[in-house]
Amino acid sequence: MTAYRSSMTSPKAKGGESTLTVLLALAVNLAIAIMKAIAGVITGSAAMMSEAAHSVADTFTEGLLLTALRRSERPADRKHPFGHGKERYFWSLLAAMSIFVSGAVFALYEGFRTVFGEPEEQSSPVVGYVVLAIAFALESVSWAQAVRQVRRQSAAEKRSAREFLRISDDPTVKTVFLEDSAALLGLLLAFAGISLHHLTGSSLWDGLASIAIGVLLAFVAYVLATTNRNLLIGRQADPVLVRAVWAYLREVPEVDQVVDLLTMAVGTDRVLLCARLDFDDALGAADLELACVRIDEELRQRFPDLDEVFLEPVPRTDPALRQRVLARYGRLLSDGYQSGGS
């Protein structure tokens, strides 16, 4: 069984690094958007105009991510007893939609207009080459910062970068990384379109490059929207954490059986836990209360990501509860433990 290792970086430090990553991406994308728009007007390139729209979408995205970071850190209150952590997922979902609406749709429109419309002349392609080169250099700076953060946090959690991006509950890091990666690939596509238009004299290549950029942005938007949708709905916590909590509870002397274990990510590095436990029948009421208090404290010490912990004493033989557990997980629970009584 894989041991759970909490991140070596504090939530406050990770929040600061995420803010730095987003701010750097915002500044870079704003500067690039202006340059691309000017170059698009000068060259008349559909691919360059699509890249300008791409950078505008990225700029809006960074603004939404900054909003996500600020609002998700607000403390819990009467109306939101579990805090505002899921605001990060909501604003990140809007950021994904911004990439699609502001970037992909415009790029596809420009591409199809160029491919199926009247042939267009290209002017001053050198301007396009220079702007794309500068944009690639600037985007590389933002991308390098995103890569550093991904590598640092994945190493702290003893995971590969790919696995970290797949299961991370911080959508801001994934958004900036994928956005910057798509930006670099989009620049290469735009360069190919402008170059082939320049060499062949046919605007078809420029239009095809614009369509390819639109498809790329639509794919990135879909991946990010799916990630944030799952987190908003209420995704289970990291499976490694779930297995580690179950393993700990199974070894608690007062616990005879772990009947059910429910977790949900309620924010970045914040997990709600509900454990249904069959306690030793010999325990008195006072002993049971003290055991619950001790278990709660030990869980929070071992697993800092646990934000709220609920321990519910239940009999393992209850047929209705058993049926709910089996309906959710099957006879063998997907995280590696068996339901009570099986």
Automatic annotation (TrEMBL):
Residue stretches spanning the membrane: 20-46, 89-109, 129-147, 182-201, 207-225
Keywords, ordered alphabetically: Membrane, Transmembrane, Transmembrane helix, Transport
A GO biological process held by the record: zinc ion transport
SUPFAM superfamilies, per database record: Cation efflux protein cytoplasmic domain-like, Cation efflux protein transmembrane domain-like
Entry-linked Pfam families: Cation_efflux
A cellular component annotation (GO) from this entry: membrane
Gene Ontology molecular function, alphabetical: monoatomic cation transmembrane transporter activity
Protein's recorded name: Cation diffusion facilitator transporter
Species this chain originates from: Saccharothrix coeruleofusca
